[in-house]
Amino acid sequence: MARATTWNANAAAPPQSSSIKQHVKEHFSAVSERYHEKNYIAPTARGQYPDILMRHHRILEMAQPLAGRALDVGCGSGRLLLDLQRRGFEVTGVDCSSAMIGASRSLLLRAGSSPLPDLTVGDIEQLTFPDASFDLVVAAGVIEYLAADDRALAEIRRVLKPGGVAILSVRNRLNLSRPLILLRDVLQELPGVGRVARAGHRLFR
Q1: Torsion angle defined by CA atoms of residues 181, 183, 188 and 191, in that order, rounded to the nearest 10 degrees
Q2: Do 53 and 204 form a contact (C-beta atoms < 8 A)?
Q3: Cα separation values, 29 from 23, 101, 135, Å
């Protein structure tokens, strides 16, 4: 299994683009086996982050009036692909990590996805699809890992059909989710209060 590596996307002097991508690939390959459980099954357990599941629900709400072909760039464990397909989309997934693509395929097979979506190891800055291929492109938690966003945005625009919709989600410098998660973990250790805090996971399901 690849060694987990982290990099601060807000660092003043980021590494070169190829180095950043390698760090990201190694990190997500290392967490691929537990990514779905961590972020979608038990997102409010101690040390876990429910913001990804909250983002997931918001994306589905935004996609509700749409239809057609959907591309999820940075598809991770495949949960969004599955839920978009259940809503009638013809879905395609791309991820920089082959291990994540494997995790997506496993989840979709277990869920009985039919037809099984196209899943491809790829680069958001060099998408392999023809122009005007998709009605919807989603890139959630991807842009912040790039040294610059111009090439990625140009590729998203290129593969979108005229009138298509792009849904992007990017953490900003003032992201408060992690400090709030730490506070939650502290509260969970307190008698009485902890029971209420743990019960909060129902709000995210």
Answers
A1: -170
A2: yes
A3: 10, 9, 29
| pLDDT for the residue numbered 37 | 74
Summarised one tens digit per residue, pLDDT across range 3-62 is: 333 333 333 334 446 787 887 778 777 877 777 777 777 655 554 567 788 889 999 999
**Three-state DSSP state, 162:** strand
Distance separating alpha carbons of residues 169 and 26, to the nearest angstrom: 21
| Per-residue pLDDT reduced to its tens digit, 144-190 | 888 889 999 999 999 999 999 999 988 776 666 666 666 666 666 67
Q: Which residue has the tokens 């969004």?
A: 80
Contacts (Cβ under 8 Å, ≥6 apart) of 54: 204
Length of the chain: 205
Residues β-bridged to residue 138: 72, 167
- Which residue reads 């792009």 in tokens? 166
What are the backbone angles phi and psi of residue 94, rounded to the nearest 5°? -130, 140
